[in-house]
Amino acid sequence: MSAPLAFTVLMAVYDGDDPGFFEEAVASAYANDCQPDDFVLVVDGPVRAVLQARIVACAETHGLRVIWLPKNQGLAKALNAGLSEVRTEWVARADADDINLPDRFAKQISFIEARNGAVDLLGGAIEEIDEDDRVVATRMMPTDEVEIQRFARRRNPFNHMTVVYRTELVRQAGGYPALHLREDYGLWARLLIMGCRVGNLPDIVVRARAGGAMLRRRGGWKYATTEYQLQRYLFKLGFKSLWEAGFHLLMRSAVFVAPNFIRKIVYTKFLRS
């Protein structure tokens, strides 16, 4: 019987993260039925004393490998710094404020093994919780590879905090592109162009923190600017036509600059289950 696939949890944390949520996120990875072989944590710039203390405590308790970046560089550069230190064939992404369900890794690793490794990137569904841990929405993704490819032309086809991917393929793709808040979508596009085999589990594998604060962050002209950068990137990559990129830019920018209550309706009624 072959040994289980070895994988590393890759997580980035920065000063804006909640210390308690961070500690819970790390603990949830190790509370899994299938525990990680390694855990690379990138600290993206200086952090306040209380968060630093939690980071040090978690590192000592769980044996995390911690990379301390001298200044905040953003998620893409932080994850790329961590990716360069990964020693296993597989990476499981995890966010510093989300909760990995106890069977997440077992389900994903079993799926990959059942297909004899004939998948390079695998995600899953999430349920979003508010500040009081109440479920406010679920975000399911297409599971069929052909449908994922079609969906990706319109929207991000993976929940980033759920993905497991082959380390070397992501390195070959150049890692995460410098797209503020959209680095994951840019990476998926590159991997799909490369012909990577992809899938999504129908199962909820992560509880993601959402709520009013998230909606406020995902609005305004600044966020619309990130949409322009993303669509421009996807067009130059050859992933979208000029018409597709322009249409999606106009539609999404209209939502981003709309009042918060309108964004809430769009997210909860049209983009979530």
Q: How would you describe the overall organization of this protein?
A:
The protein is an alpha/beta fold and 273 residues long. It folds into two domains: 7-210, Spore Coat Polysaccharide Biosynthesis Protein SpsA, Chain A (Alpha-Beta Complex), CATH 3.90.550.10; 217-270, no CATH class. Helix content is 44%, strand content 20%. It contains eleven helices and nine strands. Strands 1, 2, 3, 4, 5, 6, 7, 8 and 9 form a nine-stranded mixed beta sheet that branches. Strand 2 (38-44), helix 2 (49-62) and strand 3 form a beta-alpha-beta unit. Helix 1 (19-30) runs parallel beside helix 2 (49-62). The radius of gyration is 18 Å and the shape is globular. The mean pLDDT is 92.
Nutshell version of this structure?
This protein is of the alpha/beta class and 273 residues long.
CATH-defined superfamily of the largest domain = Spore Coat Polysaccharide Biosynthesis Protein SpsA, Chain A
**Nearest-integer average pLDDT:** 92
Quote the CATH topology of the largest domain. Spore Coat Polysaccharide Biosynthesis Protein SpsA, Chain A
Tally of separate domains? 2
Supply the number of helical segments. 11
What distance lies between the first and last C-alpha atoms, to the nearest angstrom? 40 Å
Q: List how many beta strands DSSP finds.
A: 9
Assembly type of the chains comes to single chain
Stretches where pLDDT falls below 50 for ≥5 residues? Answer: none
Element-by-element helix/strand order: EHEHEHEEHEEHEHHEHHHH
What characteristic shape results from the CA principal axes? globular
Query: For this structure, what is the CATH class of the largest domain?
Result: Alpha Beta
Proportion of residues in β-strands: 15-25%
By helix and strand content, what is the structural category? alpha/beta
